[in-house]
Amino acid sequence: MSAELSGRLAALVHDATTGTVTAEQALAGGSLRALGLDSLGALRLIDAIDLEFGVEVDLGDGPGADTLDAITRMVEERL
Q1: What is the CATH number of the domain that holds 65?
Q2: Can you tell me the distance from the alpha carbon of 53 to that of 34, in angstroms, rounded to the nearest whole number?
Q3: What pTM, to 2 d.p., does this model score?
Q4: Which of 29, 36, 54, 70 is surrounded by the most beta carbons within 10 Å?
């Protein structure tokens, strides 16, 4: 897993949640929803990933799909 990609995605999480979830919290692991990612933030994050990387991700695609590691894997697989 690319540390650079994870770092960029963590920054997108921070922006999508308007600071509720920091990049450091996202990088530490665990459920982004448990950290404060709400439905509006999830939509913002999905849109930001699509705009920046040209790939679509599904944050509800199975258990653990809302972790930064899972999102990073989804983006890497679709690049």
Answers
A1: 1.10.1200
A2: 25
A3: 0.92
A4: 70
